[in-house]
Every structure is written in structure tokens, then in C-alpha cells.
Amino acid sequence: MSIDTATAARVAKLARIAVPEEDLPTLASELNGILAFMEQLNEVDVDGVEPMTSVTPMRLKRREDVVTDGNQQEAILKNAPDAREGFFAVPKVVE
């Protein structure tokens, strides 16, 4: 697939990037380079290769999933203009 200046202008418009008319051939060339690199990557055989999270093999740190209330109710309500019974107090908007 080859990208011409009209396609580059359309891509720039879709990306909401203002590209001057004189820079469209350069953008088209750069996009063609990216597509060529992607085609080169598609030729690589990755069957049996496990996905990696990093270039160095390491296991992600995990913690026990425990539901808590955060124990920060007082700190959160301290900046509230009006708090009652441990909750934010707001004006009534519905009759």
C-alpha cells in the first residue's frame, strides 16, 4: 500500500493535525516508511513466542485484592463546606 499526498491530507484531517500543503509530501513519505516497517514486522514468525511485559523477564508484583473503606473519611470530609453524619451535605434540588 502506498500513501499519496491526498491520503496524507485525509489522515492529517482525521487526526485533526494542521499540516501545511508544502509538508504533505514529507508526511506521505514518513507514513509510507511506517507502513513498510509494519510489513517487515509482519514477516517475522512469532508462533510459540509468549507476550512480554518487559525486555527483562520478570513477574508482575501482585497484592491481595482486599476491599476496604480506605480509612480516610475524616481527611476527605475535612475540606467539605458542609458534612453531616459522615457524609457530604448538599442542598436539596428535588422537591
From TrEMBL:
It catalyses: L-aspartyl-tRNA(Asn) + L-glutamine + ATP + H2O = L-asparaginyl-tRNA(Asn) + L-glutamate + ADP + phosphate + 2 H(+); L-glutamyl-tRNA(Gln) + L-glutamine + ATP + H2O = L-glutaminyl-tRNA(Gln) + L-glutamate + ADP + phosphate + H(+). Keywords: ATP-binding, Ligase, Nucleotide-binding, Protein biosynthesis, Transferase. InterPro entries: Asp/Glu-ADT_sf_sub_c, GatC. The keyword Protein biosynthesis applies. SUPFAM superfamilies: Glu-tRNAGln amidotransferase C subunit. Pfam families: GatC. Its EC number is 6.3.5.-. GO terms for biological process: glutaminyl-tRNAGln biosynthesis via transamidation; regulation of translational fidelity; translation. It is an enzyme of class 6 (ligase). The keyword ATP-binding applies. HAMAP family: GatC. Belongs to the GatC family. Heterotrimer of A, B and C subunits. NCBIfam families: gatC. Allows the formation of correctly charged Asn-tRNA(Asn) or Gln-tRNA(Gln) through the transamidation of misacylated Asp-tRNA(Asn) or Glu-tRNA(Gln) in organisms which lack either or both of asparaginyl-tRNA or glutaminyl-tRNA synthetases. The reaction takes place in the presence of glutamine and ATP through an activated phospho-Asp-tRNA(Asn) or phospho-Glu-tRNA(Gln). This is Aspartyl/glutamyl-tRNA(Asn/Gln) amidotransferase subunit C. The gene is gatC.
